[in-house]
Amino acid sequence: MRKGIVPIVLGTAVTAAGVSMLRSKHNNFRADNPYAWGVAGFGLAHVVLGAIDAVRD
Q1: pTM here?
Q2: Residue 26: per-residue pLDDT
Q3: Fewest 10 Å CB contacts: which of 25, 28, 38, 50?
Q4: Domain of 42?
């Protein structure tokens, strides 16, 4: 298995959870839930770092 695949999959799942938190609390997708944006940003950071690891191999 290539290095970086696990962080990409983890990041995708965490990003989806953050976006789901935004959609579940507010039906019109408002941006006033800082915890949901934090979770989504944390997931995106994992995707980016995993992609860097996958490309460097």
Answers
A1: 0.80
A2: 56
A3: 28
A4: 5-56
